[in-house]
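Batch manifest, entry 17 of 40.
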Amino acid sequence: MRRRSFYLALPGVLWFTVATGTLASAGTANISLTEVAADSQGGAVVEVALASAGQALSAIQFDVSYQSQALVFSVSPIGTLAIQGKSVWTSSAQPGLERILIVGLNQNALIDGVLATLSIQVTGGASPGVYPLGLTNAIASDPTGGPVPLSTGDGGVVVTGTGVTAPAISAVANAASWATGPVAPGEIVIIAGNFMADSALIGAQTSAGFVAASLGATTVLFDDVQAPLLYTMANQLSAIVPYEVSGQAQTSIQVEYQGVRSTPFTVAVAPTAPGIFTLNESGSGQGAIMNQDGSINGPGNPAAGGDVVSIYGTGEGQTTPLGTDGIIVTAADLRQPVQTVTVSIGGQNATVLYAGSAGDEVAGLLQIDARVPLGITPSTATPVTITIGGSSQPGVTMAVQ
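Output type: structure tokens
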């Protein structure tokens, strides 16, 4: 699955990703294939994408399995690989199995993104359906030659027929923490699956001060209530849990594409499900945190004890005034969480000066302004946690001088 982003522009300064990546575990490098539909001539281009999750990988080897009776493909490297001093080598171990090696005579780390493309041609007479591309036996090494754990994601080629394939949901996760589990009212979530939308990315659309609940031919329903959508692709989309689920024990999620609905995907509902966005989009590492002067916090730009920083997250639950699905919240109409918000920085309680809507952003994006405790030990990786009913994910940090 290719890493995709929908960026929210926080007031004048900070840009960060609301919903990205794959549902691989945070901190584990991932290599994956896309699932695409063949064109009218039976051609398709499948991308091989890397999400390093902060790991340094200098070489990768993996196998792609396919139905040789129906598919023929060739491998093409992306131009940036040559700049990195890397080459793509392929060998056919047997019919229906292609081994691909990406390596170079250097210690340069591979850059996240598309590494190569598979040019697919569906053979004549292939029946409508999904022709899977399996990604197996993946191994990777770091610049010193040591092994790097690597998760994988399969892909496929869809040959369409006269009907529409029903969408399918495989997972739902918090867009900030990447944690699966109960969802909360107003939480920004990622939904992974298949056949959920057009293959091309469609970003959020707004009208009359609201984020649209329909993109292209796709809608997402929580107990038949349409959810605001931040982006859609065939195998991944981002939605905001409607506030109408508040007080329920569970909710039934369905994706509708071209008038066809998925089988209901049931998840538990909790009052809150807090998560902090991170700059590397993995759910861990440097948080999406803004310094007092409006700059982005990081190792090269730390905050000082006594400074007020803004932490961005989601999953705070119901608000007062009551949350409104998809509304772009203005500075004159800020909403605050019903439940108490606390912040820990470096293991010390931080004074919370504000917790609520981020002005001029969609409801569900949480901003917390907190004062960095005095006397805190300087570190480029100071732990940060927010608690709203439950606690946010571990492993989120900020830089303090």
